[in-house]
Amino acid sequence: MVAFFAILADFAVTLLTSLWFWIVLAITVSFILLRALYVNLKTRALGNVAYSRRFSTDGIFVGETIELIETVENHSWFPLFSVRIDFFVPAGITIDELVCREYTKVTSLCFIPPFSAIEKRHVIVPNRRDHYKMSTASIIYRSNEFIFSDSIDFYAYPNYDGADLSLTTDLYHAGNAISDRKYIEDPFFLAGIRPYRAGDPMRSINFKASLRSFSGGVRQLVCNNYDSSRNYDSMIFLDLATYSEHSMKAEDQLELGLHYACFLFCEAVKNAGRVGFASNCAIGESRYVHIPCSSGEAHTKAMLETFSELAWFARRDYSMTAIVKNVAPFLSEGTDIYLITPYVDDELAQLLAQIERSECSVNVISLS
Fold first, then answer.
1. What is the C-alpha to C-alpha distance for residues 275 and 303, in angstroms, rounded to an integer?
2. Residue 357's pLDDT is what?
3. Rounded to an integer, what distance in angstroms lies between the CA atom of residue 250 and that of residue 313?
4. Tens digit of pLDDT for each residue in 279-296?
């Protein structure tokens, strides 16, 4: 035992008197101190990072591509290496070729130079119709987590390709050709007169009516208000009630019905038609869906977003007969009605026959 302690003492004396020992010790201590300083400075710099993200567009059809663009800004002089950004994506989409069958965490690493910003782009393909939402993102460094509340969303509209519908009514009304003009004026369809507006062509001024038109005691010019030969109305009814005579699952019934409805809507819009939509499926606080016939970019967006929002498990408080009774009186004469339903009972059949007698065409599309 005495010999062991004597050997240990000799080794300690030799080590402490060695120059290399002190060099290695100095390097180790310096490394520990520098690493602690680096961790402290990086943690502070990450606390000043600004994070934002957006989608390249707010709505696409199923199967199309959308980009998720992340922007990370470094507001400090400290270079940030290997910044780890985490966020969760909902099920039903493919992001950067990763198929998400459940709620999935996506991680990316990046380098952010001092006082600069970088962008990270992720390619997303929705695999099913839905309203997709992402709420938070975070940067994780060691035991520190910096959470960013940045809610974003986009709509995946139903896929309408390949819908095979045998329609008895003329969906196109003016043939299969689609006009390049935004507004098509037909001089044979005179809808009335209106006050002159800057930019109106001289040929549209109604000089005879202008001689008799006064506003505030001052004579004013008025113009003929022409209607479009393609300006027709279509109303799409989607019946999502369950029937004992029909064995299709509620989810399959909804997806097939929306597939048909989206096809009809897109074809009518391409041909300058005004389109409306009604369904006995509730969305949010509304007990059923009713969008009156209209046109324009805002209307198109609202219709497609409604298609994305419908859920097979939502409540259905009304029969399709009740929906048609509520909506039909407000339709203009000559409206084309498309009823997408799995079953037509006697009461609904009588109602549709009555509507046809009022010069509205009715086309029933069976869900089977």
1. 9
2. 87
3. 8
4. 999 998 888 999 999 888
